[in-house]
Amino acid sequence: MATISSNDSNLDAIFEQKRLLRSKVRKQLKAMNPTERSQQDAAIQNNVLESLWFKSSERLCAYISCSALREVDTSKILSDILCNLEKEGGGLVRKKLYVPRVEDKNSYMRMLNISTTEDLIANSMSILEPSPVDCDGNQREDVMDSNSPVDLILLPGLAFDRSGRRLGRSGGYYDMFLKRYQELSMERKWKLPLLVALAYDLQILDDGAIPITPHDIPVDAIVSPNGVIPITTAAKERM
Question: Which amino acids does the record list as binding substrate (predicted)?
Answer without folding.
Answer: 64, 71
